[in-house]
Specification:
There is one protein chain. Helix 2 packs across helix 4, helix 2 runs antiparallel to helix 5 and helix 2 runs antiparallel to helix 6. The radius of gyration is 52 Å and the shape is rod-shaped. The protein is built from six helices and twelve strands. It has 482 residues and is α+β, with helices and mostly antiparallel strands.
């Protein structure tokens, strides 16, 4: 009876020992494996990740490298290309190079990388996790406020785009109407200029005719004076004409005596008729219709109205009025066309999935580092300034990394090197500002820009899940910060 009892007790001890050994072996077998990869190791036969070989479950973490890529030894230092995963409950998990496993140095804050017993590593994740959790909470608070600002900016951008599109449509309609008006004003102006040119030619001809008549009269007076002087010298002085002279004068009065006198009379007659016509309103063969004052308007009728008389001053004012309207309308048309081109160029840009970068178009951002001032103008260019010297770091090219960075390229060339370029990496922040410009490679610049536009709601949810996970692990480990 006693023998049977002893035998049963011995069998029970063996069973318990086997269960403990099995549990320990199972625990060690998944050491160093990430949670998302645990299912990969559940089958009895496992493939190396690069497909080169297969190994059975017993070969997992047996401290012998079967797979060149280290698939079979995630928890040992046997494979030179292996990775060890630190769980770090209560803190952030990390992956170490396999060479750091059991090397006598505590690399994981939970001490899981030194499990061979040679070194005793205290679990410092809880204390370290406090700082991490605090930073994570602050980051989440910034993201929450940033997401709110971003939503507001997206709504503003949509309203601004609708307003700009409406303005563009009105400008195009105005351009069409103004083109027609400018065309009519130009025709009106050209007609007025033709009238003015004809009047100028008429006046020139009148002046030439008058000068010719005046010149002829002066010559005749000189000849008459000379003849009288000679007669006086030969016949003596006499105040009264002789009888023969009186008879001759009476018989020839009002009649031309030669061709010259006939020409003079015709010229005087023509000039008299022209001058008279200026006051009576009658037209001669040399006159043309003139633009009457205050007859111009912006309607469809752009014909030259007939003259109502000699109103040179008023006609001059009317001509000047037409010219001024033409110049003003031409200037206005040019301004409208310039604005149309500007809006068209703006609206064709890539402003993001929700048009969230719309207000970046007309802005520039600056930061000063050491002796340089860096200036970034999205959709335009980027530069580095030192006093009066300006170096172009690049022209706007595009967004990269799902609107996570802005690229400027084809800047000024380096000495015996490539053209300069700048990549601006975006980060979540409560205000938009340019920071931390550096040159990691020759002529290749990198800058950071914080902005609420990059405070994405999806990223906020990810951070909140991360914080919740850290808190859950903390509670599971029996730690409470309170």
């Amino acid at each position: 009876m006693e023998v049977n009892v002893l035998f049963l007790l011995f069998s029970l001890l063996i069973t318990i020992f086997s269960l403990i050994s099995s549990t320990k072996s199972s625990s060690i077998s998944i050491l160093g494996v990430t949670p998302q990869d645990e299912n990969y190791y559940q089958t009895e036969t496992i493939k190396c990740r690069n497909g080169s070989k297969k190994f059975n479950r017993a070969q997992l973490n047996d401290d012998f490298c079967d797979c060149p890529d280290g698939t079979d030894e995630p928890g040992t230092s046997a494979c030179p290309h292996g990775k060890f995963y630190c769980v770090n409950v209560g803190h952030l998990p990390v992956s170490l190079h396999s060479s750091k496993v059991n090397d006598g140095i505590c690399d994981c804050c939970d001490g899981s990388d030194e499990y061979d017993g040679e070194v005793k590593c205290p679990n410092a994740c809880w204390e370290a996790g406090k700082v991490t959790r605090h930073k994570l909470k602050k980051k989440i608070d910034i993201y929450k406020e940033g997401v709110t600002i971003r939503k507001r900016e997206v709504e503003r951008a949509k309203q601004a785009i609708a307003k700009d599109k409406e303005e563009l449509l009105k400008l195009k309609n105005n351009e069409k109407s103004l083109k027609g008006l400018v065309k009519k004003l130009k025709a009106h102006k050209e007609q007025i200029e033709k009238v003015e040119e004809k009047e100028r030619l008429v006046k020139e001809k009148e002046e030439m005719m008058k000068m010719a008549v005046d010149g002829k009269s002066d010559d005749e007076q000189k000849e008459s004076s000379s003849s009288t002087t000679l007669d006086s010298e030969s016949n003596g002085p006499s105040d009264e004409p002789s009888v023969d002279q009186k008879d001759e004068y009476e018989n020839t009065e009002g009649m031309p005596t030669d061709g010259s006198e006939s020409t003079e009379g015709l010229l005087r007659e023509e000039l008299g008729r022209h001058v008279a016509s200026r006051w009576t309103g009658e037209k001669t063969e040399h006159q043309v219709e003139e633009v009457s004052p205050n007859k111009y308007n912006h309607g469809d009728n752009n014909e030259i109205p007939e003259s109502t008389g000699d109103k040179d001053h008023e006609n001059s004012d009317d001509a000047n009025h037409v010219r001024k309207d033409y110049e003003d309308s031409t200037t206005r048309l040019s301004d409208i066309q310039e604005r149309i081109a500007s809006l068209t160029e703006k609206l064709k840009q890539d402003f993001g999935m929700e048009k969230e970068f719309y207000f970046f178009y007309d802005q520039c951002f600056e930061t000063k580092q050491d002796k340089y001032v860096y200036k970034v103008c999205p959709y335009k260019d980027a530069s580095q300034e030192e006093g009066y010297r300006k170096t172009r770091l690049g022209q706007w090219e595009k967004f990269e990394n799902s609107y996570g960075s802005m690229l400027f390229s084809n800047g000024d060339g380096c000495w015996n090197g490539p053209g300069r370029s700048l990549k601006v990496k975006l980060r979540c922040g409560l205000k938009t500002e340019l920071t931390d410009v550096n040159e990691p490679s020759r002529c290749e610049y990198v800058a950071l820009m914080s902005t609420p536009i990059h405070c994405l709601e999806g990223k906020l949810e990810e951070l909140e899940r991360k914080l919740e996970s850290m808190r859950s692990e903390q509670l599971q480990g029996g730690h409470d910060e309170l």
